Amino acid sequence: MTRVVRDPSRPVTTLELVCPAGTPAALRTAVDAGAHTVYCGFRDETNARNFPGLNFSRAELKDGVAYAHERGADVLVAINTFPEAGNLDPWHRAIDDAAEIGADAAILADIGLVSYARDNCPNLRRHLSVQAAASTPEGINFYAREFGIARVVLPRVLTLPEIKELNRHTEVETEVFVFGGLCVMAEGRCSLSSYVTGKSPNKTGVCSPASHVTYEEHGSGLDSKLGGFTINRFADGEPAGYPTLCKGRFAANDKISYLFEEPVSLNLLTMLPEVADAGVTALKIEGRQRGKAYVEKVVRAFRAAVDALDRGEDLDAAAIADLTEGGRETAGAYKKAWH
Amino acid sequence: MSTPPFSPILMGGLLLRAVPPELVQPVAERLARRLQDRHPDIFERLAPLGPRVFAIDVTDLPWLFVLSVADGEGHVEVRAKSDETNADSTIHAPLKVLFGLLDGSIDGDAMFFTRDLTYEGDTEAVVALRNALDGADVDFIADIASAFGPFEGAAQSLAEKALAGFARAESDFAALNESLIQPVARRNDAQARRIEELEERCARLEKALRRVKTMPT
After folding, report:
1. Which residues contact A138 (CB under 8 A, 6 or more apart)?
2. Nearest-by-CA chain B residue for A53
3. pLDDT tens-digit readout, A98-122
4. CA–CA separation, B11 vs A245, rounded Å?
5. Chain A residue nearest residue B134, CA to CA
6. B132 contact residues in A (CB cutoff 8 A)
7. Which pLDDT tens digit goes with each residue over A27-76?
8. A212 confidence band (pLDDT: 50, 70, 90)
9. Class of B8-138 in CATH
10. Is residue A23 in a domain?
């Protein structure tokens, strides 16, 4: 069991736990498991997890918000894709409906939508999505000054010392990813999946759309393909993964290796004392496309960790090891050893 | 395709091999109807996909369950495993995993990553089905028990007792399995250690060979 001892000199701060929900059942599960806040999206291209069978109708979101509010939790609505020119209606309607339903904030990426929300739904709190890729105090303060952004979700490319420094130069709340799938590209700007599938993750809301994914069993294992291209080949018994180009394993110069990074999951559970020390407000768990069992287990483990941190107790990281992609985990850029 | 675990279900499945699919059909149909009545949202979530056919291969039972979904409704047909189907997707998993997916107690992605569940065919349809099932609050025991009207409570209690009995049998099977495979496992471990040693030796020899090749003549 991994144990992390909290620094007793650090002031006690309650970190807000922001948890994913792809369905109403997952929202209720997250709230019951101890989420302070749940984030979700409408069932269309306005959010970056536009998977089939996932997400909320307006009526489901209304019920979900009521359920969360009755139990003291907040609900954020991700409207974090980039609208097509000439087709703004679905995105504007999403912002209007999120405000009407009583969501606690909208998570926005496109600067035009941030401006629309400020002008048309001034009482709806505005969070800047990781899709906006704002990673400097200057950029974040610009959004705050011009559009009243209250919180920014930081890209997963910053180290903890960088986040600490950033927090010294902005009044805007910061939210950081602490668990789940790890996007290694510049979020909101990556078009790798578009080249293979013809569908933009930033506009249609899904990287490696399931409609373009196939798995093929063969004698010695399993091939995962995206748009007809083989992205990975797993030997018998080797843990499989979802085919995204940035995490593909390819053969070149007689060597087979991952292009950028092995498919591992982010897990900062044991680093929460350092995350708190960096001055962040909220911890984000990735995984709106994952099931209730995942949500329940991860949220419960992180809520216990946040509470333990507040009580000055040690952290236990054993509980969530089997939920990571390929069974392996990383601290990602937060603790990077390269420059 | 995933290999079924050594379990009471697998043993039961072997005993049930003589039972033709036609005899199971009415039970499967009734269960599917019950699911649809109590959880219409499952089929509503699948509706945008259009008509789809899923073949569900319960690896520790002798039958194939073919689920056809269209216009917000579902229909199930029980077939022999050898039958051809026109399924868009075929899902292979043991019964326990499928029940876990149905009631949301098991994470489908984790099952797929570890290959306890495999599938072929239309990934979009499989993802949608997984999401639709996970989004419904299915409690299989309660759903079935509710079909017994005034005897719902008794049916629920009976089902819970049966589940407890199954858990005990499962634990016995695990112990039996461990004692049966222990000698083989020991031999495998020894072979794995030997392979590891040989690989290390190979790597050392390759390195030495590279050094010799790059030496000036």
Report:
1. none
2. B128
3. 999 999 999 999 999 999 999 999 9
4. 42
5. A291
6. 53
7. 999 999 999 999 999 999 999 888 889 999 999 999 999 999 999 999 99
8. very high
9. alpha beta
10. yes
CATH classification of the domain holding A87: 3.20.20.70
Name the domain boundary from A258, A291, A315.
A258
| b/e code A18-31 from CB counts within 10 Å (16+ = b) | bbbbbbbbbbbbbb
How many CB pairs below 8 A link A and B?
99
Using alpha carbons only, give the angle A196, A200, A205 rounded to the nearest 5 degrees: 125
Q: Element (H or E) spanning A217, and its range?
A: strand A213-218
* Interface pTM, i.e. ipTM: 0.84
Q: Give the gap in angstroms from C-alpha A140 to the nearest C-alpha of chain B.
A: 35
Examine the fold and report which residue of A210, A235, A258 is the final residue of a domain before the chain moves on.
A258
A197 close contact with B: CB closer than 8 A: no
Q: Are A84 and A230 part of one and the same domain?
A: no
Per DSSP, A224 falls in state E
Alpha helices by DSSP H, chain B: 8-15, 21-38, 40-46, 95-103, 108-113, 123-135, 140-145, 152-214
Asked if the structure places residue A187 within a domain, the reply is no
Looking at the structure of chain A, the number of domains it has is: 2
DSSP secondary structure code for residue A252 in this structure = E
Q: Is some CB atom of chain A closer than 8 A to the CB atom of B92?
A: no
Token pair recorded at residue A121: 């739904």
**Cβ separation A52–B104 shorter than 8 A:** no
| Residue ranges making up the domain that contains A235 | 192-258
Do residue A268 and residue A254 come from a single domain? no
Instruction: Name chain B contacts of A25, Cβ cutoff 8 Å.
Output: 104, 134-137
Domain locations in chain B as residue ranges: 8-138
For residue B104, which residues of chain A lie inside 8 Å, CB to CB? 25, 29, 291-293
